[in-house]
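Hey, I'm writing a tutorial for new members on how sequence and structure tokens pair up, and I'd like a real worked example in the thread rather than a made-up one. If someone can provide the structure for the chain below, I'll link this post from the tutorial.
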Amino acid sequence: MAEARLPAGKTLTTFDFKSVPMLSKAQVMALASGDVWLKTGPTAIGLALVENGWRVLFALVHDYTWRGVS
């Protein structure tokens, strides 16, 4: 967790899914618990974001050196 530098307290268990009714809690939890989508999902999601005008940076973890962590 320290290496990830994620902000504390923001978890799926504390997320108010009722505040975003079009978001399926079941689908989000399935994505968060499995690794199948990691093999294909990030690339597809990144491409969709680019197609919608967002800037995206794709990097493979093993090719990237994090501030003293490799």
